[in-house]
Fold this protein.
Amino acid sequence: MKTVVASLLVFGLLFSCSTTKKNISDTHPIHALVTSKSFEFTADWANPMVTQSMTAVANSGLIPPGSNVSRINLAGNPNFIKIVDDSVSASLPYYGERQFGGGYGSATGIEFNGIPEGYDQTFDADKGKYTISFNIKDTSDRYYVTMAIFPSKSTTVAVSLNNRNSIRYEGAIKALENSTKQ
């Protein structure tokens, strides 16, 4: 009797542990949102590159409460990346090291506005995510941006810069409120 119960338990366990793979259909809201090119990313967390200088800043108490040197909470800190048609604009806080001295009046965060170069938008059906990549230049730096957008609308954004260390952001996208595209 014990063997039958153990066999049934093992048999049931094996069938209940099968993986489910959900592909996003073309009617899924994430498809419509991403392909509309009318959405906004808002970051909840910044993940800067951890360096000796960043560790010194964290040890001095300058990191916001609830944060650490590798994960900074952006609650209450307005930030965005907006994609509207062919234009991209951004205003994100930057935590990290500048490799070259900045000029007077240069942006301290990641700020750009314009038409990006090399805009590429792909959908990976196996992973169920969209990847958007582009680069854009402002007066002081060139930004290489890669966005990974998941079906839940959670998004990670990696920004590589010419004159500063790379940084990654975690947050979500949403449709722009004004349907006439700003």
User: Anything to note?
Assistant: Residues 18-22 have pLDDT under 50 and may be disordered. The beta strands are 38-48, 72-73, 80-84, 87-92, 110-114, 117-124, 129-137, 142-149, 154-161, 167-175. The first strand starts at residue 38 and ends at 48.
